[in-house]
Amino acid sequence: MVIPNLDSVLYDPEVWGDPDTFRPERFIGPDGKLIRYEEFIPFSTGRRVCLGESLARMELFLYLAAMIQHFRFLPPEDGQMPSLEGILGVICSPKPFTFRAVPRL
Asked: What Pfam families does UniProt report for this protein, alphabetically (predicted)?
């Protein structure tokens, strides 16, 4: 069994600067086009790449696009944002959190 440690690449401060900060704009260049980093390998790479990567990307896009079209996502009433710390295991999972999904009119 091979279990690669992708976190060593995905959370490398030398590559990402501040890997624990949510900044989607780091993937958009000055010309507004998508930047593809060689170090961004959430589905692994080479001979061990996930066979379902294209299906997962398509499904995530369709699901998230539909959710964003129909809802606004807001912090809970108390305004407390979720922790960015994860629960470590075979994968890194988020800690339980709450939010509000308000239907768009």
From this structure: p450
Measured CA to CA, the distance from residue 78 to residue 89 in angstroms comes to 30
0.85 exceeded by the pTM?
no
* HEC-encoded secondary structure of 29-91: CCCCCECCCCCCCCCCCHHHCCCCHHHHHHHHHHHHHHHHHHEEEECCCCCCCCCCCEEECCC
Residue 92, annotated as binding a ligand: no
Report pLDDT digits (tens) over 18-37: 988 888 899 999 999 999 99
The pair of structure tokens assigned to 94 is 């988020």
pLDDT tens-digit map of 50-81:
899 999 999 999 999 999 999 999 999 998 88
Residue 40, classified by CB atoms within 10 Å of its CB into exposed (0-12), middle (13-18) or buried (19+), is middle
